[in-house]
Write a structure and sequence with these properties.
Layout: H1 2-9, H2 13-25, H3 33-43, H4 51-76, H5 83-99, H6 102-107, H7 113-123, H8 128-156, H9 161-189, H10 202-207
Helix pairs in contact: 2-3, 2-4, 3-8, 3-9, 4-7, 4-8, 5-7, 8-9
Length: 214
Amino acid sequence: MLHYLMPLISSPWLYVIMFLLVAFDGFVPVAMSEAILIGLAAVSTTGSPNIAALAGSAVAGGVAGDRFSYYVGRKAGPRLRNAKLARAKAVAERALLRQGAAAIVIARFIPYGRTASTLTAGSVALALRPFYLASAVSSVLWAAYSIGLGRLGGAAFANSPILGAALGIALGLLLAGLHSAGKRLRARFRPPVAPAEGTGAERPALAGIVEEVG
């Protein structure tokens, strides 16, 4: 199977495709860019694709997709209808209120978190400078994490890159599952906190991260 894929894996067009997949995954999270990046990183132990170019295209695609998602959030965030994204957006908004742009970095590793946090950043008009910084940092960390998983799998199965890719993807799914399970356990044992009405406590937190739009 790898034999048939080698012409594409060795082609410069692979990096364009990787860029587009990661960018597209930023506002329509169905492209499975993480699994593809892990798989390609595992295959890269054979010599192709070039790992530096692969990382660069993934990071650039991450920043570009985040920026487009921010734009969509500015224009259509309040009218979001997808149930999963709407719930994730509500969580992301609370995180942005508490943590500012740092929430974008954290959300990058949570299912639907990237799209939800960047859409929300746009809908609340998060200032572009901290947004770009958070987007770049999260994209670099995510690319390093995904490529690291792939290289780990590729090293474990040096004679079978396909098995190496499968191992890397399985490790990524396992880590995501453990994270989700941990969140559910924390939510189950966390005592409920009644919201304080009329205090306006949200405003100071929001004021530091939101820019005025004329």
